[in-house]
Amino acid sequence: MAILVPVLSKAKKQTKAIICLSKLRQWGFIFKMYADNNNGYMPTTSYEWPDALESSYDNGEGLLCCPMATKPVSEGGRHPFAAFPVSTGTWEPMSDYESYSIASYGINGWVCNPPPEETINSFGLPTSNNWRKVDVIGASNIPLLLDSIWIDSYPDTTNEPPPFDGDEYGSGPMGSRQIRMFCINRHDGNINGVFLDFSIRKIGLKALWKLKWHRKSDINAPTPAWPDWMKKLKAY
Question: How many domains does the chain have?
Answer without folding.
Answer: 1
